[in-house]
Amino acid sequence: MFSKKDIATYYNHTLLHYKVGWQLRKSMGLHYGLWYSDTKDLHDAIQNTNKKVAEFFPEKENINILDAGCGVGGSAIYLAKNYNCTAKGITLSPLQQREGSKYVEEAGLTKQIELSVQDYTGTNFPDNSFDVVFGIESFCHADEKADVYREAYRLLKPGGAFVMIDSIKTEKGKLPKHKKTIDWLLSRWAINDLDDGPQTYEKLASEGFEEVQVENLTKEAMPSIKRIYRRAFWGLITIPLYTIIFPTKYHFTRRHPESGWALHKCFRKKLLDYVCISARKPKV
């Protein structure tokens, strides 16, 4: 069972991997990205995910958004810059928060964006604070996903939108014979377990959300999943040298390259889907 401290440790100790292997300094996104026919490169794909979140913004000015599991703040920066919104970003990783705050300052957006170290299942924000609460590949880390939905509901203004872009188990992925394969991936990323679609919809409804909708984005994410798979080979080759230069006893750093193989196998065998799930807090 991974604790919140374990999750923070994972991100603290793999940040260099994302810098080297995922153009973090340029795109500031740790997520897969979405590839369409006109997508030119990884940077564009990552921004496409941010644009997907923006599809749920209300048509009004001065909106306030929360990136719950913000990484180094890349999505908040893109959205604040392109949609003139005010953003809060929260992460369990102090290293991500410090790195992201530098990016915010470099972008000249300190008046619009604030990043802090907080748990998205229990924040210090007041009720009805945000027009949109979203998470990109972050809610997967929650031990009980309903805790995320309950806090998001509290934080959203009436009529506000909840958006999660993440992986869920398929019906095939729920079968006991595939548990070992999925656990291989989850153990490398400090994730205890994933829900399936029906579990997700039921839990959102139980917390009071309405208009629950799902869009399957597996096809759009596959180019990045294949990219991670290819880079995993280089990671496995160089990991002995890496551990000499950056000596560490941490499980996540040593075993991180394996996640590329595990990820590709889970999606190749159709054990997981990559989806955008949205819901609304009732207006009254």
What does this structure look like?
It is a single chain. This protein is 47% helix and 19% strand. It is an alpha/beta fold and 284 residues long. The chain has a single domain, classed as Rossmann fold, CATH 3.40.50. The chain has a 7-stranded mixed sheet with strand order 3-2-1-4-5-7-6, sandwiched between helices. The termini are far apart. The relative contact order is 0.15. The model has no long low-confidence stretch (mean pLDDT 92).
Strands, count: 7
- The helix fraction, in percent, is 40-55%
Q: What structural category do the secondary elements indicate?
A: alpha/beta
CATH homologous superfamily designation: Vaccinia Virus protein VP39
- Rounded Rg: 18 Å
- Determine the N-to-C terminus distance: 39 Å
Task: Give the strand content.
Answer: 15-25%
- Strand line-up of the largest beta sheet: 3-2-1-4-5-7-6
Contiguous low-pLDDT stretches (5 residues minimum) are none
Q: Kindly report the CATH topology.
A: Rossmann fold
Shape: globular
Chain-averaged pLDDT: 92
> How would you name the oligomeric state of the polypeptide chains in this document?
single chain
List the helices and strands and how they pair.
Layout: H1 4-21, H2 24-27, H3 42-54, E1 64-68, H4 74-83, E2 86-91, H5 94-106, E3 113-117, E4 130-136, H6 145-155, E5 156-169, H7 179-188, H8 197-206, E6 210-216, H9 218-245, H10 251-255, H11 258-268, E7 272-280
Short structural summary:
The protein has 284 residues and is an alpha/beta fold. It has one domain: Vaccinia Virus protein VP39 (Rossmann fold, 3-Layer(aba) Sandwich).
